[in-house]
Specification:
alpha/beta, Rossmann fold, pyruvate-formate lyase- activating enzyme, OB fold (Dihydrolipoamide Acetyltransferase, E2P), globular, binds iron/sulfur cluster
């Protein structure tokens, strides 16, 4: 049977789509290989969000096309957000690609990978008509691409927010939630497969259930999932600042398995820029929000992201953002320079900022945050912290690594482990107590002192 290799780019939501496509293929008898060089069919699941991600996607497609001309592959399929955004251009400029499937054509992966299928005759279903309805559920087969101890669960798809810099709603369609029962059933399935940490993702997790007429559904879902047998941790990513409810914070505070971690992209803090971004709020309202979060959930880690160089951002606006970051002292911060994306409202705004200035502002912000991060990590030295063991460290096979509940996979630092009691080798996903002896900007270093 045909061997299929996946190259999955960008965010966890795209990774879940790749896992679902691999699951469907495997169920139909296709072999899935992690090595694209060994595949008969190569699938590149792309990102179309910002310039750098688009470039990375194009390069990955060209690299995969090389496997067709120089390697074993006979078929190249391109999927994902870049297809939604540039389907016709890609089709015209990339004849080496046999088939393009969009974010709502996940089920078409079977026909486009079938060697019998003449892909040129496949119907094209443009997402533009906003009728995107695809949502996987607990009966959809998935091949997990994450390490066996954690898994992402996509709780909703699409987005209805008007953020001026963002093309995602046009690539992913209207906001639509999965059924509560479907997510709970999937969580139990994953727990039975040995998963210890569930990471809930969506474009806009805070809105979960609103379209199903449910109030505070994310809080109820989190409370329910935190009681899933076998699951140690449940984490929520991509919340939205205007939708952080008291009940959600109550669950984070009260449920031991709901990790004390809030991922909430804010993008800016100046009222002027937030208004131009169509996100609303101001420094005062955001500072009060963080205060409220930290008061209700002591010890919570707050992760956020900012954009510098948004059209109309003045030096004063940037100074206000710097003041905000220094006042609030976030635990984790990512900063991106504005990407001028045609088809978004921001693309037509005046007062574009010189990319050099945007970059200088990003570097200044990251430098300020680096000092804060180091100070916060220094304060942990001498403490024994709960760590989910993950196995051999990425940076050295002389070390092990794990994560605290305040560290999400891939985007946050980790805990490097340099020692453990004689003969004690924990399993990935096992919780251990680690005495922290060293602290760096992103990572901590310590030794296992006990099984948690
Ligand atoms: S919330 Fe805003 S930034 Fe996030 S996906 Fe929706 S429109 Fe884009």
């Amino acid at each position: 049977m045909n061997k299929v290799g996946f190259i999955s780019l960008s965010c966890p939501k795209n990774l879940v789509d790749s896992e679902v496509m691999m699951g469907q293929l495997k169920q139909k008898g296709f072999q899935i290989t992690a090595n694209a060089e060994d595949a008969d069919t190569v699938v590149v699941n792309t990102c179309g969000f910002i310039d750098s991600a688009k470039k990375e996607s194009i390069e990955a497609i060209l690299e995969a096309a090389r496997l067709k001309t120089e390697g074993k592959a006979t078929r190249l399929v391109v999927a994902g957000c870049l297809v939604e955004r540039y389907r016709d251009e890609l089709k015209a400029e990339m004849p080496e690609v046999d088939a393009f499937i969009g974010t709502s054509q996940i089920n078409d992966i079977l026909s486009v990978c079938d060697p019998q299928t003449n892909t040129r005759s496949l119907p094209v279903i443009p997402l533009g008509n906003q009728s995107a309805t695809y949502l996987y559920d607990e009966s959809t087969p998935r091949v997990l691409a994450t390490p066996s101890h954690y898994a992402f669960i996509k709780i909703a798809e699409g987005c209805d927010r008007p953020c001026a810099f963002c093309f995602i709603p046009q690539m992913r369609g209207h906001f639509r939630s999965r059924r509560f029962g479907s997510i709970v059933a999937e969580a139990h399935q994953l727990a039975e497969e040995g998963v210890k940490e569930l990471i809930l993702v969506a474009q806009d997790s805070s809105r979960y259930g609103e379209d199903l007429g449910k109030q505070d559904a994310l809080a109820h879902l989190l409370r329910e999932l935190s009681h899933t047998e076998g699951i140690e941790w449940v984490r929520v990513m991509y919340t939205y600042p205007t939708h952080i409810s008291d009940e959600f914070l109550n669950v984070l505070a009260e449920e031991p398995n709901a990790v004390k971690y809030l991922d909430m992209p804010l993008q800016h803090a100046s009222q002027n820029v937030l208004k131009l971004m169509k996100r609303g709020g101001n420094r005062g309202s955001l500072e009060r929000l963080i205060e409220r979060v930290r008061k209700r959930v002591p010890g919570i880690a707050v992760r956020t992201t900012f954009i510098t160089g948004f059209p109309g951002e003045t030096e004063e606006d940037f100074d206000e953002l710097m003041t905000f970051v220094k006042n609030v002292e976030f635990d984790r911060v990512g900063v991106f320079t504005y990407s001028d994306e045609e088809g978004t409202p921001a693309f037509d705004l005046p007062n574009k900022v010189d990319p050099k200035i945007a970059k200088r502002r990003r570097d200044q912000l990251m430098k300020a945050q680096s000092t804060i991060a180091k100070k916060k990590h220094q304060a942990i030295i001498g403490q024994t912290v709960l760590v989910m063991f993950e196995g051999e460290a990425n940076e050295s096979d002389l070390l092990w690594q794990g994560r605290m509940e305040t560290q999400a996979p891939d985007i946050d630092g980790c805990v490097l482990i340099n020692d453990a009691p004689e003969g004690f080798v924990p399993e990935p996903g096992q919780l251990v107590d680690v005495l922290i002896e060293e602290a760096h900007e992103y990572d901590l270093v310590g030794r296992i002192v006990a099984v948690a």
